[in-house]
Structure formats: structure tokens, C-alpha cells
Amino acid sequence: MPHKPLWCPPEMSRPPILADAIATGPIQPRYALLINPFYAKDPHASFGKHVLTPSLALTSFAAVTPAHWQVRYWDENLLDGRPPFTPLAEVVGITVHLTFARRAFELARWYRSRGSKVVLGGLHVLSCPDECAAHADALALGDGVTLWPRILADVEQGTLQPRYTAAYESDYRLDPAPRRSILPRRSFLTTTSLIATRGCHNRCGFCYLATDGLRMPYRMRDPAQVAEEFLADGQPYAVFVDNNLGSNRPYLRQLCRALRPLRKIWSAAVTIDVTDDPSLIRDLALAGCTGVFVGFESLTDANLAAANKKTPKASDYARRVRLLHDHGIQVNGSFVLGFDHDRKDVFARTADWVEENHLECSTFHILTPYPATPLYRQMEAEGRLLHRDWALYDTAHAVFRPRNMTAEELEMGYAWLYRRLFSHTSIWRRRPEDWRAVPPYLAMSYLYKRSNRFWRFLIRHHLVQAVWRPLVELTRLRHLRFREQLESRRATSKPGTGIVTAGV
Ligand code: B12
Ligand code: SF4
């Protein structure tokens, strides 16, 4: 039976119109406007995911803006209408990912035609520089923290170059803390997005870290620096946006030691091999970790091997999830669909597994060959790419011909999975074993998974932080009680103190 189309209001699927007729202000020298462009939201998933925490792309290099420059942050996904144009910024810096490249180029054209200098940076600029060059006065390829001061100095001298390049090889401990003061605080569940490390010990063929020409050795900040940043932002909850916070286990242990005295809560992305050492999981829990985002990717070992992912056997995932749950850590499992060994039963099998193992949250992605990655080259060589419309490379669309099903079947299976996992029955099936943890679990699940209309309201009226903050604070207090028990007992068995973690 065909399903009713999901609710998706126009402002979640289309960016504000940039009319040519709009009267703009004069150019204000030494003013930089930093824009995170609009992207269409997938109505199958939660709209809340996009306001959980800001990306650090713009705030990280905003921190090295010289003091005589004014800097303003603008995220088009906060639904506040057109980006500012009175006065016009002398420099407009835009971060570009492939899914919103078209919107970034539209913004670039609009500002350039009015006299602003446009600088494009970010992942898509690195993987497709020639495509981006036509739309910018300058491209920043690589680490913005190294490049931004150079770019602004050249703007001041009138010697702006078309391309600036910097590898990710500087001493990460010397980077200043991201400039979070420019963020609209009311618009995010927490403004404390933290990053402690860059890179990953894996090199999965589908991951952007495997992009040609991207050298990102594993770099770490001092645990004390990270703890200081967490404290300074004054929020009870932080989200680590590291690719894999568990890549270097001795480091993760040190970080836990630094975070433990803060008595705050946080979540992070880790690979499941972090559970090799149960004592590390205990350290995570005692340091305030209440949720992990785990890229399981697939429950079929052959898919994991073909993707070059070094990971434990899928048959051992369930035991590892239990270990996390036993330490009060919720699990948001991320699964990729459409690998070559996936058949049409992959959707039901994945849903059953998620429910059997009581994963509080799960995120699904259709396999997407990002340009300049090994997966992209393979699909291109095999003639399986369907098109190069980057806007649809958002992991919600099939952009290649899968091996064992049609592209339509893959998209339908993806939609079916979200519908099933966001259903009342599935939310109930996955409830924690400890009955005391059930009410907060249900509150969080319903707010996150079944309230897209409410999310739109909260985002438009800047109420995200106000509504979530009490829930987060309650979660923190529950977690602290759980920690006391954990400290006094060696064995643990009281799960369910976590906060639902969103994934990417
Ligand atoms: C936080 C995050 C999100 C948040 C965004 C929050 C927000 N409010 O914007 C949420 C959860 C909403 C999200 C959603 C998605 N995300 Co996301 N996300 C991330 C994550 C984890 C962190 C981003 C970050 O802060 N990085 C740290 C900063 C400092 O690094 P950076 O962005 O590279 O910026 C540096 C340079 O690139 C440069 N730079 C960047 N921009 C600019 C601009 C200028 C002018 C200059 C000078 C320099 C510069 O300077 C910075 C400092 O060195 C990354 C993974 C990662 N660790 O990077 C994935 C990631 C960016 N996401 C990804 C994806 C695929 C998505 C989704 C499409 C997935 C999905 N289906 O849900 C969605 C939707 C977004 C979309 N349609 O595009 C991919 C992008 C792949 C690609 N090739 O484009 C990544 C890389 C994850 C992955 N491993 O695949 N995401
Ligand atoms: S483990 Fe995750 S972050 Fe690391 S390379 Fe693989 S997909 Fe990328």
C-alpha cells in the first residue's frame, strides 16, 4: 500500500530566495560574514538533528580572525530568512559540502555581484576544487585555521590569491578554541560542539577521510584544553564532532580523566572496537559519556571487509552493545545500506537487530560515493553512477546502481526502515530494561523522533535551547546518581541514563 508522503514544510526543503532586485547596503570594510548554507532536510529523519549542535567549520577559523575585523555567523538552516546584506560584508566566507554546493554557489554569485569578496572552503572545495573555483574570489583548500589570517591579510593588501592551501599537519594543541561567542545560543540544543582529535585510524573506502589528496594524520588536543573549553561554554551537555574519538585509546583514557571532574555529560562518535577494553567503557561512563554514535555500517562481514573497515565481527556487535548499555551509555547505531553484499532482506534484518539490541536511536544512510574517494572511483569505473547531481548525494538518495536490488528498491527500503524505527511499536520495543529509565527514554524518543512539526516551531522561534535545557539537566542529574553507584560498585547493571544522540 502506498504511504502518505511525509510532512515537509517549504522552509525545510527550499532555501530563501535571493532576488536580484533586493537593495543592499554599502560594503563595510573589515567585516567578514561566515555562512553555513541551507540544505534540504530529509523528512524521514528528525529535524531536531540539525540543531543539536553547530558544526565547527566556521567557528574554528573565526577564532583566528584579527581583532580589527568584525565577524558574523549565519546558519541558513536556522530558518531566519535571507542572510544579512545591510551593510554588505567585505568578505563572505562560505563552507561548502557537496550536498549544499549549489546553494553555496548561488550565495557566492549573489554576494560577488554586489562587490563582496567570496572565499569558499570546506570538504567539497578540497575534493572538487576546479568546480568551486568558478564561483569564488579565493578557495581555501584544507585547514582554515592556518589559511584564514593569510586570506584576510591579502584582502587588506589587495593581493587576494585564487587558491590557498594548507595541510592538516600543524600542532593541533596550538589552535585556539573555536569562537563560540558568535553562535546564536538559543538556537541549538547545545552550543558546545567539541573536537579533540582529527583523523581516524581506519580508512574506509566510502569515507571522506579517504579523499584523494587529503592528508589528515591523527592529531590530538591536550585533554586539559578540551575540558577548559567545555567548562567555558557553560552548558551541561557537549557533543564531540570528532570522526572517531576512540582511535587512540590511551588518549581517550586521558581525556576521560580530564572530563570527569566537570560533572557534565557528553556524547561522541566511536568505532565499536572501543569496547575491546571494558575498563575504558567504565572510564567513559565515569567521565560523563551518556551516548555514543557508532558506525556499525553493516551487519554483514563481507561488506565491512570490502569497505576496508577494520572492525570486530558483526556477530560480536550485540555483546559489545550490551557492555555500553550496562555502563549507562546509550547507543545510536549508524548503518549504511546498499553495499554490494546487501540483498533486499537487509532492511528487515537491520530493523530486527536494532530492536533486539535495544538501540535507543539509529541513523541510516544510503551508500554514497563521495567524489575523489576509492568508492567513487570504483563506481565510476564500473559505470554504476546514475548522475552527478551533488544535491542528491545526501545519503537519503540512491545515486548509483546497487548490485542486488534496484535504486528504487534501495530508496524504498531506506524509507521503510526509518518509518519502522520511528514507529510507536519500535520505540516501545527498544525501551530500556530498567523501568525507572523508561519515562525519560520515552520523552526523549518522542520529542526527537516524532515531533517534526514541533521542531519546526522551536527552530523558527529560537526556542530549541529553552525547551531542551531542562531535559538535558535532568539527564545530567540522573547520570550523576548513576555514576555514584558505578563508583561504589565494580560490576554495573543499571542502564538507561543517557541522552538520545543524533548522528550525521
Ligand atoms: C556536525 C556534523 C553534522 C551536523 C551539522 C550541524 C550543523 N548545525 O551544521 C549534522 C548532524 C546536522 C550533520 C548532518 C549531515 N551530515 Co554531517 N557532519 C558533522 C561532523 C561530525 C562535524 C563537522 C565539523 O564540525 N567538523 C570540524 C570542522 C573544524 O572541520 P571542517 O568542517 O572540515 O572545517 C575545516 C576545513 O574544512 C576548513 N573550512 C571549512 N569551511 C570553510 C570555509 C572557509 C571560508 C574557510 C576559509 C575554511 C573552511 O576550515 C575548518 C578548520 O580546519 C562531520 C564529520 C567531521 N568530523 O568533520 C560530518 C560530515 C560533515 N557530515 C556529513 C554528512 C554526509 C552529513 C549528512 C548529509 C548525513 C545525513 N544523511 O544525515 C547530513 C546532512 C547535511 C547535508 N545535507 O549536507 C559528511 C560529509 C561528507 C562530504 N563529503 O561532504 C561528514 C564529513 C561525515 C562523514 N564522515 O561522512 N552533520
Ligand atoms: S571508521 Fe568512520 S571515520 Fe574512520 S575512516 Fe571509517 S567511516 Fe571514516
Give the termini distance in whole angstroms.
30 Å
**Rg (C-alpha, Å):** 22 Å
What shape does the CA trace take? globular
Based on DSSP secondary structure assignment, what is the total number of beta strands? 14
Secondary structure tally, helices: 18
How much is the average pLDDT? 94
Low-confidence spans: pLDDT under 50, at least 5 residues?
491-504
Alpha-beta content class: alpha/beta
> What is the percent of helical residues?
25-40%
- Major β-sheet profile: 6 strands, parallel
Describe what you observe in this structure.
The protein is an alpha/beta fold. The protein is built from 18 helices and 14 strands. It has helices at 10-13, 57-62, 101-112, 123-127, 129-133, 144-157, 223-233, 249-259, 278-286, 301-306, 317-326, 346-356, 374-381, 407-421, 424-429, 438-449, 452-460, 464-488; strands at 27-36, 70-75, 88-95, 117-121, 138-142, 163-166, 193-194, 197-198, 219-220, 237-240, 265-270, 289-297, 330-337, 361-366. The strands form 3 sheets. Strands 2-1-3-4-5-6 form a 6-stranded parallel β-sheet. Strand 11, helix 9 (278-286) and strand 12 (289-297) form a beta-alpha-beta unit. Helix 7 runs parallel beside helix 8 (249-259), helix 8 runs parallel beside helix 9 (278-286) and helix 12 packs parallel to helix 14. The longest helix has 25 residues, at 464-488. It starts with 9 loop residues before the first helix and ends in a 16-residue tail after the last helix. 47% of the residues are buried. Residues 491-504 have low confidence and may be disordered. Cobalamin (B12) is lined by residues 36, 39, 49-50, 54-57, 60-61, 93-95, 97-100, 119, 121-123, 140, 143-145, 147-148, 195, 207-208, 241-243, 365, 370, 394-396, 502, 504.
